[in-house]
Design goal:
The protein is built from ten helices and no strands. The protein is mainly alpha-helical.
Length: 234
């Protein structure tokens, strides 16, 4: 019973924490505007970058980085260290639960009408505090794909598909007991991110997706074009 209650509370608190959207909060504080009414209308990093430039994008990136990391670290410290509850002989599983529900909260935030970002940035930065080896491999894949194709969405999609398989591979090599359930959770995360990129997939197939292109002032020349958010937001 205590294990089920622990999972439920972790999931709920992580969801509520994840529902705090950095892009929306920061643009309201610093620009007195709603990012959802600008550019592509997406509440994520790529749209912030396109509309407001590098400065706001960096601040948004850092806030989303800490949002995911704080959720995972808090879950692991409280559940494993304070409550002395472990799943599969380690604290990785509870971290994945926190990471999954932070991302769900970010994508479907209860505070903003269940409309948020696409979750790529948050998934990647959350992974830093949980599985840095897999994270590093995914970042390399993302950079390679985007560098070659110039499509942020394609890099996000391919990285999301690779996510569970790299998790299983690296955790099998390290002999982690919960690697199979972790594979299932990361597969859910990857599938959710791909699902959120449905419009991008349609545009990629039709050859209509916008490539990443910046003007000298650091903003996209096509700021009103459909967004491929996130490049990992969150």
């Amino acid at each position: 019973m205590k294990y089920a209650l622990c999972l439920l509370i972790t999931a709920l608190l992580s969801y509520l924490w994840g529902s705090l959207n950095s892009a929306i909060i920061l643009t309201r504080i610093f620009k007195h505007e709603d990012i959802r009414q600008k550019g592509s209308g997406n509440a994520g990093l790529t749209n912030v970058l396109r509309v407001y430039g590098n400065g706001m994008a960096i601040i948004t990136l850092l806030c989303d980085l800490f949002k995911g990391v704080i959720a995972v670290i808090a879950a692991r410290l409280i559940v494993t260290n304070l409550l002395d509850i472990t799943f599969f002989n380690d604290d990785i599983f509870i971290g994945y639960i926190a990471g999954l529900f932070v991302m769900i909260g970010h994508i479907f935030p209860i505070y903003y009408g269940f409309h948020g970002g696409k979750g790529v940035l948050l998934a990647a930065t959350t992974l830093i505090s949980m599985d840095p080896i897999t994270c590093a491999l995914l970042v390399i894949i993302f950079i390679i794909v985007v560098s070659i194709s110039k499509y942020v969405s394609l890099g996000s999609i391919i990285s999301s598909i690779a996510y569970p398989f790299l998790t299983l591979l690296t955790q099998t090599i390290r002999g982690i007991d919960g690697r199979l359930i972790n594979f299932i959770i990361t597969a859910c995360i990857g599938a959710l991110i791909v699902y959120m990129h449905r419009p991008n997939i349609k545009r990629l197939i039709a050859g209509e997706e916008n490539k990443l292109s910046f003007s000298k002032n650091g903003t996209d020349k096509s700021s009103n074009a459909p967004d491929s958010d996130d490049t990992k937001q969150s």
